[in-house]
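User: I'm putting together a teaching handout on how multi-component assemblies are represented. Below are the sequence lines for each component of a complex, exactly as they appear in our records. Could you produce the 3D structure of the whole assembly as structure tokens, so the students can see both representations side by side? Please keep the chain order the same as the input.
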Amino acid sequence: MEKPLNNRAWLLVAPVFLIVAFSAIVPIMTVVNYSVQDTFGNNQFFWNGLGWFQELLDPTTELGGRFFDALWRNLLFSAIILAIEVPLGILVALSMPREGWKVAATLVIMALPLLIPWNVVGTIWQVFARADIGLAGWAINALGIDYNYTGDSLAAWITIVVMDVWHWTSLVALLCYAGLKSIPDAYYQAARIDGASRWAVFTTIQLPKMKRVLLIAVLLRFMDSFMIYTEPFVLTGGGPGNATTFLSIDLVKLALGQFDLGKAAAMSLVYNLIVLALCWVFYTVMTNTGSERQQVETQP
Amino acid sequence: MASITLDGLAHAYRPDPRGPQDYALKEINHVWRQGGAYALLGPSGCGKTTLLNIISGLVVPTRGRILFDGHDVTRLPTEARNIAQVFQFPVVYDTMTVRENLAFPLKNRHLPRETIARRVEEIASRLDMSAVLDRKASNLTADAKQKISLGRGLVREDVAAILFDEPLTVIDPHLKWQLRSSLKELHRSLDLTMIYVTHDQTEALTFADTVVVMHDGAVVQTGTPEELFERPAHTFVGHFIGSPGMNVLPATVEGRTAHVGGVGIDLIRSYPTLPAGEKVELGVRPEFATLAPAGSGVPVKVRRVDDIGRARIARIEIGGHPAAALMPETLSLNGDEAGLTLDARQIHIYSGGVLVAGEGAP
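Assistant: Of course. Below is the structure of the complete assembly, with chains in the same order as your input.
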């Protein structure tokens, strides 16, 4: 049978294509366009080929050096954040009440940090941690510990990490709590009959049942922390020195501070590719565990 | 190995029970013999799962004691009792293989490795699971998972009783029969007490030697399937067991005659002890009430005839009260008038829902 050819369908797709073009393709192509050129202002551009990319990926150059420094800082930050927030979130979820009015109260309190705008979080902690007038900063100094996040890199890092933990552990905890709630009582009862210890219950029932929500939590927290900008920008502005200059902060410095549009464009493209690649890895892992589960249910 | 004694057991989920309405489980005295196959039968919410959880130790009763072979275990935790339980939804440890699942209760009790291996092999072959021992338990079907949860109970040599909490709910219908008969076989070959909770009368009657019928938090009758069928001790048992259930008709009794809405029915016993003020009812199963041509037996009106496959059931009215009766193959009706012949020995009189023993029975 001959298929009737009808090209009118393209008309129906056209609006979507237009919207995507203006919202994604055109901006990205603008960045690509900048990344292969150099400018000295006056809206004059000069062809530079892959020069910026070569410089960016070569750690011995000035641009490459600061890019890799910021990248390592970012990776270290994400690793610390995951290492603290995931176990802490699980622990909090495990100790949350299961029934009664306490559930609602706990959920509201837990959700509060998540509802605060990010730059407000930064401002809160900037004031809170100040050595002269901030409650926390003043108290730590009063205890005899020399603490000043504007001058000391380690103090700045600790402050940012604590701030992020305060801001985002709730998310991990709430996800884990949802995972825990979905475990039927029969599992706990069976474990008691089987004489399982508290630790065995955690490793053989709770953790496996939480696997999927944990993967989502890890994905969300990794992506967010890897792209962190607002809170450290407000709190430390990337300092002291470059101690807390993460990729996104460096990018803004480069593009808007120094107006090096070519370098910044190349850097944002590479940054974007890294994020996409990591997203893909997570997505693959998640869908694989998902299909594993499907298999279980359909097997004869 | 143990017999289980329930001594004045009662349970309320509220911490301060005031009246009987607060009790999910009203006072129960019962002995589960060692090696018996019991069914705990009743509709949802009648307290049967509560009772099961008290026996297994997941719930501590408000009042009363529970004894295993004379030892008080009322306050002992689950893991200290020799009890295994199979739940409504299959419980397997997802990350473990079938072998590890079966070994889990023994590992937790720190048995020597050789003993564990031997027991696991033994139970696996008994359950026909030797071939799948090294597969992930989570990859198996629901009925295989139920067998694993049963196996986790069987591996323990000290287990005295196995409790089943509606274990066939999620099993495919054609596998239910299979699993139920393998349960029955296991019960015969292992000297174990089994208590099987269900709301399905077929499951209860085919599995158990003794059926305990519960209603509204109380045990209303304990007996063999025959006893439940022929002498329901409570109108609820009559209703609940049998399909269709027993006809229960409001009646007044005078001497050896019962009157149902102005129609007289002959009795073979008299009931001089009927308490005044209580509601009196006459109960007779449809299987013992046969339709006959008009003019013979008790006059009734036929409303409708249902063909239920193995028999025809006539929906009738006796003195204005709806009832069901058997419709013989050979009978053809003329209009809606008919007669009803009753097996007089199978007519029971209930007072306030409870069976009353008559006097002068032949």
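A couple of points students might notice: Residues 261-298 of chain A form the longest helix (38 residues). The beta strands of chain A are 37-39, 45-47.
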